[in-house]
Write a sequence for this structure.
């Protein structure tokens, strides 16, 4: 709470958020049909109007909403009612809210996401009409209506909203307002602001393309038996990411692929030495540790099997630690993630895109070919061992012996290849692929000669840039708005958010400060907060007070984390622009 108060104490008006539709719509998608009234759905609270409260809304694609309780009173037949925004229809005795009732439909050219969205909670219900067009016209626009539990109504319009229809006549009219079902009275000029004396207040545009509330927001507040109506020049809550983070490293994978008979790693040891940011891959001297009498069989009885084994200590791995190893009969050891289907046809592309972080001495081993073969796991003296002892290749009896060794304390991993009589046999049917890859899709760094590495090869835990985004929208009274910083390297379990009153876009290069390839996306003059990092993610919740004085305040922010990828050992994220509002 102290941090939240600190942030809001520093904020000052920077710019006005004009567009309430610069983020993707949220909530439920009702559909993209034309000339419809969707079935009643819960508002989320009891909305008061004209001495009655209503629990449900029936939404039309034509910019109007019908209030009811369980469908009572029932809405009219959609056609031709919805494309006829006449005062006779508006005053037909039903409680109606009209954001802009005109002959609009979802734009077919915008695809299946054009249409009506509803987002409800216990305090507000927002209906958005996205990617709409007037019937027969191609200019696309968005508008919204928000109902608040206190009875307020808010109407938002983007710059292209207007009234029109190729039918002409009353179909080209536009109506904005609210009626509880009683007598309409006279229309008003909503743009001038004022107070009504009855529960109905509306404006009617009878000439095509004369709608004058575009790029504005209109607020209706109950005032006794009537309404106070006023235009808002600020107030659209938004959070927009911009720019790009740095920290893109080199490779998160290393491999060598061997065609049948070309395998040349027999008698070779390959070591993955754990560093703060990844592994240093090198050749070394390795000692094969023969399995002891307590070694546990891996997936006993299965040629194509796998089994998870618990470790007595958490072992350092990319993204944190693990206390489980998943071992397949095909020479793979997964460090984390849901076990995958067994694959006996190794390939480079599959290794690079393997869903789980894993080490691979990937070969179609077949222990059923020899009673002397064993695939076992054991933990001894702080090391875990996965061993393929005298295991033939599929279709052969010639044995192979390989062993993965895991230092639980340091996270170092060693592959000892003792013999490979099957893998070098030209009669085998598929390749052998040896290497390591971070889980998920990886770019191809090119093959490495693992038998003669020379200069150690650096494999990094994270090659994705540091990424800042948000969840929820910064609406007044919301407890759901938060920042999320992801792809944080596992060097130091803390990251930072910097806040400023200026958006820097394009970003200001930070090379002179030792952050090569990085940029600043905010001036950062409002201060910073430190955040704990869990695995590779840091979150910062920012509850928004219900203070109308905060509407229109904007600020910029960016993240910074520790990394060995720059001389300063720091990397930066993209920027996020936040505008507080309704």
């Amino acid at each position: 709470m102290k941090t939240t108060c600190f942030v809001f104490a520093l904020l000052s008006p920077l710019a006005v958020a004009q567009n309430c539709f610069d983020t993707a719509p949220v909530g439920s998608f009702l559909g993209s049909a034309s000339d419809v009234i969707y079935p009643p759905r819960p508002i989320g609270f009891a909305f008061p109007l004209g001495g009655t409260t209503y629990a449900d809304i029936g939404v039309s694609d034509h910019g109007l909403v019908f209030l009811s309780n369980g469908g009572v009173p029932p809405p009219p037949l959609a056609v031709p009612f919805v494309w006829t925004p006449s005062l006779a229809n508006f005053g037909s005795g039903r409680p109606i809210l009209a954001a802009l009732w005109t002959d609009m439909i979802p734009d077919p050219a915008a695809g299946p996401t054009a249409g009506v969205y509803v987002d409800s909670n216990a305090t507000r219900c927002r209906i958005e009409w996205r990617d709409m067009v007037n019937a027969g016209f191609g200019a696309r626009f968005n508008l919204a209506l928000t109902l608040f539990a206190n009875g307020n109504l808010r109407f938002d319009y983007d710059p292209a909203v207007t009234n029109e229809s190729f039918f002409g006549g009353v179909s080209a009219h536009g109506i904005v307002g609210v009626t509880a079902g009683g007598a309409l009275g006279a229309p008003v000029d909503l743009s001038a602001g004022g107070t009504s004396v009855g529960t109905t207040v509306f404006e009617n545009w009878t000439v095509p393309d004369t709608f004058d509330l575009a790029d504005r927001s209109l607020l209706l507040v109950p005032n006794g038996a009537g309404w106070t109506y006023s235009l808002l020049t600020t107030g659209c809550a938004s959070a927009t990411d911009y720019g790009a983070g740095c920290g893109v490293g080199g490779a998160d994978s290393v491999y060598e692929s061997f065609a049948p008979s070309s395998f040349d790693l027999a008698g070779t040891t390959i070591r993955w030495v754990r560093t703060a940011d990844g592994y240093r891959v090198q050749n070394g001297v390795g000692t094969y540790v023969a399995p002891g009498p307590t070694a546990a069989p891996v997936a006993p009885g299965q040629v194509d099997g796998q089994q998870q084994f618990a470790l007595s200590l958490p072992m350092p791995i990319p993204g944190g630690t693990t206390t489980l190893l998943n071992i397949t009969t095909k020479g793979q050891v997964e460090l984390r993630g849901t076990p995958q289907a067994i694959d006996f046809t190794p390939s480079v592309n599959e290794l690079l895109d393997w869903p789980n972080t894993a080490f691979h001495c990937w070969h179609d081993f077949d222990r059923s070919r020899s009673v002397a073969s064993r695939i076992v796991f054991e933990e001894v003296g702080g090391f875990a061992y996965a061993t393929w002892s005298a295991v033939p290749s599929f279709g052969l009896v010639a044995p192979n012996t390989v062993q993965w060794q895991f230092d639980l304390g340091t996270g170092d991993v060693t592959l000892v290849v003792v013999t490979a009589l099957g893998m070098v046999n030209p009669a085998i049917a598929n390749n052998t692929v040896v290497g390591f890859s971070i889980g998920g899709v990886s770019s191809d760094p090119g093959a490495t000669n693992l038998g003669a590495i020379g200069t150690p090869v650096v494999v990094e835990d994270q090659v994705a840039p540091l990424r800042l985004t948000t969840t929820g929208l910064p609406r007044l009274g919301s407890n759901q708005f938060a920042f999320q910083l992801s792809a944080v390297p596992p060097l130091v379990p803390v990251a930072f958010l910097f806040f400023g009153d200026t958006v820097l876009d394009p970003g200001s290069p930070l090379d002179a400060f030792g952050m090569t390839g990085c940029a600043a996306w905010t001036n950062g003059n409002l201060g910073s907060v430190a955040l704990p990092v869990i695995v590779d993610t840091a979150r910062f919740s920012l509850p928004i007070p219900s203070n109308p004085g905060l509407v229109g305040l904007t600020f910029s922010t960016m993240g910074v984390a520790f990394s060995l990828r720059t001389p300063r050992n720091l990397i930066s994220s993209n920027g996020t622009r936040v505008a507080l509002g309704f």
Summary: The radius of gyration is 32 Å. The CA atoms of residues 309 and 325 lie 5 Å apart. The chain has three domains: 18-233, 240-247+463-579, 253-460. The longest helix spans residues 2-10.
